[in-house]
Amino acid sequence: MRALVCERPGHVALRELPEPVPGPGEVVVRVESALTCGTDLKLIRRGHPKVPFPTVLGHEYCGRVARVGEGAPFAVGERVVSGVSGPCGACHDCRGGRPNHCPTAFDHAVWGTWAEETRIPARVVASTLCRVPDALSSDAAALLDPLASVLRGLSRLPDPSGRTVLVLGSGPIALLFTALLLRRGAGRVVVAGRNAARLAAHASLGAETISARESLGPQVLVRSGARGAEIVVETTGALEVAEEAPSLAARGGMVLLFAGLAREARLAVLAHRVHYDEVTLAGSFHYTPEDTRTALDLLSRGELPVGLLVTSESSLEKHPFVLERLSRGEEMKVAFRP
After folding, report:
1. Which CATH superfamily is domain 2-148+287-336 in?
2. At what angle do helices 196-205 and 172-183 cross, to 10 degrees?
3. Is the pTM of this model over 0.85?
4. Which residue in 13, 108, 235, 245 has the fewest CB atoms around it within 10 Å?
5. Which of 183, 156, 119 is nearest to 257 (CA)?
């Protein structure tokens, strides 16, 4: 089969690989749509400590079951989608309702969907592999993973109804936050970003937009009645933006650090904002199997702006062109058609 392989940082090649074989409880999926993601782009640029090279890229997908391992409860030809990780269901975190923190979940992960076929581990089959409704497009279904992550992030926040929310960043994750925050009745969603085309996508949903090329503090004060944002969502993964976020929050507000930072990164935050102003800092990591089911339900009901999120399609052969456009911010997500 053909697959896009990152052989070393900065080098991606289309290769012929052996077809995957499903083990007990596993399935092999023939990929219909495989979306690009910022995680893949970071891996291409600088590698990842837990992902050895060479590696097949991609983890957001939808496809049809091609082969079924012994005991897997699926049939050849069924259209399916899943989350990325496979929580064990038995550890302290899983039993405590925190399967997103299962220490072995990512030892059984879906990885390598920028390919004609991909193998779905038994744990993922058991926990999040779902049948896709006929009316749902493969591109829409492939958004299940990022949408589930955003749903987890929203679960860490207070009810946004009637509140002013500031979203830092304007990429696909930020757009999912904007769509869901507006859907949940946020009084005002203000999006700060540098890419005019991406900001226009947020504006088309009803968000207000401001330029991150200018000082954010004064702009946020103008749009929040001089109070600051009651909720701030950081989606960029830039240390300097994460450090600025608490200064943009209102007294008693909350800052969600959604995007991951390097393990060694340290935040410099004014202590008075946390103590005297009671600004709360919260984090969000990955998602639960329940989040994936909620995500699929939302997608099936057509409540997400798929056309604004998946902005073009491509064959695997044209990956250099795709990666270049993504690096310049000229696409939100691209759907590979293996």
Report:
1. Medium-chain alcohol dehydrogenases, catalytic domain (3.90.180.10)
2. 20
3. yes
4. 13
5. 156
The residue ranges of DSSP E strands in 69-157, in sequence order, are 79-81, 117-120, 130-131
β-strand partners of 28? 67, 119
Sheet holding 188-193, edge to edge: 208-211, 188-193, 164-168, 229-234, 249-257, 280-283
Which residue in the block uniquely carries the two structure tokens 């970003």?
Answer: 193
Paired tokens of 233: 């969502």
pLDDT surpasses 90 at 33: yes
* Nearest residue to 58 via CA among 106, 115, 108, 116: 115
Rg, C-alpha atoms of the chain: 20
Structure tokens at 190: 């203000």
Question: What does DSSP say about strands 55-56 and 2-8: parallel, antiparallel, or unpaired?
Answer: antiparallel
CA 122 – CA 109 distance, rounded (Å): 10
Contacts of residues 6-11 at CB distance under 8 Å and 24 or more positions apart, as own/partner, are 6/43, 6/44, 6/53, 6/54, 6/55, 6/56, 6/57, 7/53, 7/54, 8/47, 8/53, 8/54, 9/44, 9/45, 9/46, 9/47, 9/53, 10/44, 10/45
Q: Which two tokens stand for residue 152?
A: 């987890």
Q: Where are the domains of the chain?
A: 2-148+287-336, 157-283
| 135-162 mean pLDDT | 98
- Look up residue 192 and give its two tokens: 């700060």
Mean pLDDT of 124-147: 98
CB 260 within 8 A of CB 286: no
Cα–Cα distance, 60 to 247 (Å, whole number): 34
- 157-283: CATH topology is Rossmann fold (3.40.50)
